[in-house]
């Protein structure tokens, strides 16, 4: 476990650099922590086409380490495609992706041990029980068996899954699946966590649990990058935001900077993606309580 | 006919029946709007259905006057009805309008709903084929105007009984079919279909003999009183002047139709007014699967590290995942069946024991397709060709854990049943070599030609990937056989040169050769897996 010591050192470094508050000015030029080693993620000229459809068209993005980062955009904006390419699950047509200064495609050994992933739309090994799934993925990651079982037990407790730990994942609810997926992503104590729509279809109680775990995790200096289209959530959780629409980055930087003068992130977002003045149609004049039909 | 009665009970402004009929037509039409491959398959299945129906009708008409045609059409109707009864259990997703739980939120009364659903179910290729077969059966036995009139009535009754039987069964079993356990069973139903096909095969062989149709007579005597076949025998009776028997036959079927509709309405009402499994399941407590770290019992015997972890997962999947279970059961069953059947038929040879190696070796193919999109969990833990090698080797070892003892037993069994024992060592050695060759080609084809296995339904290949699947399986089998050629050549040489005393050499040589070629295959495949992880993930995520 020589790796662990290294991880802790790096974290301490980035946590120190993060002393400056989230609203630090001049964030758009890149990470404001010029002194603290490489950014968590650096993406250059990322492209992906599916047949004729361009899903991601030339994304350049630098995300600083040690932050809680939200990747926001409407449905079909390319969030999932981008995250899949960044985490090495989908090969880009063109472009460079670096995680912690390591090229995702040239140096998978350095990258895969440093990241945890919770993808959207991909299955888990659902015919294992929750506990068996964690035992499986932990051992695949090369952790010693005793350590895996200890960590799995604690994660199941914290995520409120202990009662269902011996139930097959195929019988889990959406919220439970997200939580067991999160546990699987956290098990090897990654430096950077990528979560695709971690709160989609999750009940409020599970959402609060997930939130608590993530906040505790970032407080220790780790990086969380998650995608969502729920602006209130992003606004309350994140200190750094990247807005993506139609396969391009529309804005990125510290939350306050992206929000600018708009009253909320929601308003700023609607303006950025060009959907702000689509009024609630006057055509629906028949709609209203009381009158039947 | 029933359209009128639906109009008499208007449930909403437009007639409910026409809404359902149009829904059904839209669903049929939308079947044509999918990808080109699916459209072709869809049109082809309709064409095959129509050609089959036309052929069957012509055949039935040609049999008119045959002494045993009465028994044949009664049996045909019985089989047809059985088909309709079990169809919703095997293909629960076959007809979306069949699922009444989709209608729960709509303000619909049971009686008009049933009439509308019944009329809508008459639209489709299945009812058309049924109608053709029943009409053909009636034409085959109807003699005289009275029989013709009874025949028209019989056709209507039989088709209605078939359709409402399917609907009623589907409604009664919807709880089961929408639960996870029920869907698992539906996947395993492929086994029953395979067994049923074997039965049909044997039956067809018997009927194909001269005067084979007479075999049907005793069965026909019973079935002629069982609705809805009784309506068909009524046509026969009416033609021979037995009007009393005809009336009883027809009314039996009519009574069954009424009973079916009543049962259907009852279950439908119950289904739509009581809480479903999604509500009940929340209260269900932990299913008490053996807990602990998974290091207990026989699992302890597995090696540590990635190898043991992957083996344990694969073994658990072989038992718990219906698709894996099905493919294991098929391989084990058919591998045993080939030598047994050929020994029963008396023309067997000890070389039929190779089927065990061949079928189990093919389990190595498309390893990652068996993971479905959960393969991302494997992909995210493979960084080097070494990781990929360990992953592949663990899967090959799991397979060998079952295959080696199994092949041993089958070869021993075949030697005992068919003989001669003198060939035992030779065949055993060759079998193990073939197994090793298939493990090697299977690993390589898993890396190069992965494809999705849809986790539900009976299909084992995702639409559009059929060619890859066939190519990798059959190409792999050929190449696997090709890789065993050196050993085969040695065998033939030993035989030709008359060195029968040295044939035992094939066992150690086969073991070493099999292990060596498998190892080589894994080593060649591993770097390719490591390089192609995203491509494999994309290919296996289509299900």
TrEMBL record, chain A:
GO terms for biological process: response to antibiotic. Residues 13-40 have a biased composition (Low complexity). It is a peripheral membrane protein. PROSITE patterns: ABC_TRANSPORTER_2 (PS50893). Transmembrane segments: none annotated. It comes from the Bacteria. This is ABC transporter ATP-binding protein. Residues 41-271 form the ABC transporter domain. Keywords: Antibiotic resistance, ATP-binding, Nucleotide-binding, Transport. Its main location: membrane. GO terms for cellular component: plasma membrane. InterPro entries: AAA+_ATPase, ABC_transporter-like_ATP-bd, ABC_transporter_ATP-binding, P-loop_NTPase. One of its GO terms (molecular function) is ATP hydrolysis activity. Residues 1-40 are annotated as: Disordered. Signal peptide: none annotated. It is found in: Cell membrane. SUPFAM superfamilies: P-loop containing nucleoside triphosphate hydrolases.
Automatic annotation (TrEMBL), chain B:
Residues 279-306 are annotated as: Disordered. Keywords: Membrane, Transmembrane, Transmembrane helix. The keyword Transmembrane applies. The chain crosses the membrane at residues 39-63, 69-91, 112-140, 146-165, 185-204, 242-264, 396-421, 427-449, 470-496, 502-522. This is Transporter. It comes from Streptomyces piniterrae.
């Amino acid at each position: 476990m020589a790796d662990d010591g290294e991880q802790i050192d790096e974290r301490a470094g980035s946590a120190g650099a993060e002393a400056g508050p989230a609203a630090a000015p001049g964030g758009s030029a890149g990470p404001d922590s010029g002194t603290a080693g490489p950014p968590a993620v650096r993406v250059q000229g990322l492209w992906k086409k599916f047949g004729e459809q361009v899903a991601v068209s030339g994304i350049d993005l630098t995300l600083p380490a040690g932050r809680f980062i939200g990747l926001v955009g409407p449905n079909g904006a390319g969030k999932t495609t981008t995250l899949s390419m960044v985490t090495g699950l989908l090969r880009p047509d063109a472009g460079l992706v670096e995680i912690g200064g390591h090229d995702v495609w040239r140096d998978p050994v350095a990258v895969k041990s440093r990241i945890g992933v919770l993808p959207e739309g991909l299955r888990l090994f659902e015919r294992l029980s929750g506990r068996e799934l964690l035992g499986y993925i932990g051992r695949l990651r090369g952790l010693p068996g005793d350590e895996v079982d200890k960590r799995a037990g604690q994660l199941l407790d914290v995520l409120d899954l202990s009662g269902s730990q011996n139930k097959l994942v195929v019988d889990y609810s959406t919220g439970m699946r997200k939580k067991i997926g999160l546990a699987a992503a956290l098990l090897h104590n990654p430096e950077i966590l990528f979560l695709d729509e971690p709160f989609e279809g999750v009940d409020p109680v599970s959402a609060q649990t997930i939130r608590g775990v993530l906040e505790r995790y970032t407080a220790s200096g780790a990086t969380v990058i998650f995608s969502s289209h729920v602006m209130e959530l992003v606004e309350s959780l994140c200190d750094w935001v990247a807005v993506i629409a139609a396969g391009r980055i529309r804005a990125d930087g510290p939350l306050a900077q992206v929000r600018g003068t708009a009253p909320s992130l929601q308003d700023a977002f609607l303006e950025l993606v060009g959907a702000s003045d689509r009024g609630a149609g006057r055509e629906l004049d028949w709609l209203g309580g009381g009158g039947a039909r | 006919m029933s359209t009128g009665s639906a109009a008499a009970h208007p449930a909403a402004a437009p007639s409910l029946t026409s809404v359902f009929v149009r829904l059904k037509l839209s669903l049929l039409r939308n079947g044509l709007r999918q990808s080109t491959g699916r459209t072709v398959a869809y049109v082809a299945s309709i064409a095959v259905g129509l050609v089959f129906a036309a052929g069957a009708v012509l055949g039935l008409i040609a049999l008119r006057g045959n002494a045993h045609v009465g028994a044949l059409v009664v049996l045909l109707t019985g089989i047809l009805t059985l088909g309709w009864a079990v169809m919703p259990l095997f293909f629960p997703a076959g007809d979306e309008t069949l699922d009444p739980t989709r209608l729960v939120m709509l303000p619909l009364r049971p009686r008009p709903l049933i009439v509308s659903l019944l009329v809508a179910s008459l639209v489709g290729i299945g009812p058309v084929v049924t109608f053709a077969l029943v009409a053909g059966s009636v034409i085959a036995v109807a003699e005289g105007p009275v029989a013709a009139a009874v025949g028209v009535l019989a056709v209507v009754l039989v088709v209605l009984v078939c359709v409402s039987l399917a609907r009623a069964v589907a409604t009664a079993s919807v709880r089961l079919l929408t639960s996870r356990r029920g869907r698992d069973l539906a996947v395993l139903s492929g086994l029953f279909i395979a067994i049923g096909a074997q039965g049909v095969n044997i039956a067809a062989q018997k009927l194909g003999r001269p005067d084979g149709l007479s075999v049907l007579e005793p069965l026909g005597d019973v079935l002629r009183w069982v609705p809805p076949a009784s309506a068909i025998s009524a046509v026969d009776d009416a033609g021979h002047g037995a009007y009393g028997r005809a009336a009883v036959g027809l009314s039996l079927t009519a009574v069954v139709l009424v009973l079916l509709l009543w049962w259907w309405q009852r279950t439908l009402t119950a289904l739509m007014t009581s809480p479903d499994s999604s509500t009940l399941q929340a209260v269900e407590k932990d299913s008490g699967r053996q807990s602990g770290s998974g290091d207990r019992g026989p699992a302890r015997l597995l090696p540590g590290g990635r190898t043991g972890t992957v083996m344990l997962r694969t073994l658990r999947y072989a038992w718990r995942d219906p698709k894996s279970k099905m493919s294991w059961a098929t391989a084990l069953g058919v591998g045993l069946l080939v030598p047994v059947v050929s020994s029963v038929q008396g023309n067997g040879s000890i070389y039929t024991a190779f089927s065990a190696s061949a079928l189990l070796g093919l389990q190595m193919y498309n390893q990652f397709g068996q993971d479905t999109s959960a393969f991302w969990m494997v992909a995210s833990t493979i960084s080097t060709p070494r990781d990929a090698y360990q992953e592949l080797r663990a899967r090959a070892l799991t397979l060998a854990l079952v295959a080696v003892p199994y092949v041993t037993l089958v070869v021993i069994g075949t030697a005992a049943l068919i003989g001669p024992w003198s060939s035992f060592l030779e065949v055993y050695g060759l079998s193990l070599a073939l197994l090793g060759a298939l493990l090697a080609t299977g690993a390589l084809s898993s890396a190069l030609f992965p494809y999705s296995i849809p986790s539900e339904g009976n299909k084992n290949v995702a639409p559009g990937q059929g060619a890859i699947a066939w190519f990798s399986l059959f190409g792999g089998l050929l190449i696997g056989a090709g890789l065993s050629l050196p050993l085969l050549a040695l065998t033939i040489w030993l035989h030709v040169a008359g060195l029968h005393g040295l044939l035992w050499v094939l066992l150690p040589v086969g073991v070493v050769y099999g292990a060596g070629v498998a190892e080589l295959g894994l080593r060649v495949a591993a770097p390719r897996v490591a390089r192609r992880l995203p491509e494999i993930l994309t290919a296996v995520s289509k299900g």
